[in-house]
Amino acid sequence: MFIIDLNYIVPLEELDAHMADHVKYLRKYYKKNVFVASARKVPRTGGIILALADSKETVEKLIREDPFYKHELAEFTITEFLTSQYHPDLKAFLGH
Question: What whole-number distance in Å separates Cα of residue 93 and Cα of residue 19?
């Protein structure tokens, strides 16, 4: 699993102009069972996306589709982690 950490680098007004396209991008990968969860940070300085993927390279490729990436509105950091403990209801979803 991967944590995609977004840090906004433009004023929120500029970011919000691309929010509808960003949400459309997120929904695309929720439908493909790649994205697990996403949310804004508090305070609103960025966001977090949890993603299932086979490699960091795959995640990097997905990020290049994000309007926030295309329009240079945020910086992206990817952290891979191996789920060693999780809620039992997630077992089938995580493929364990």
Answer: 28
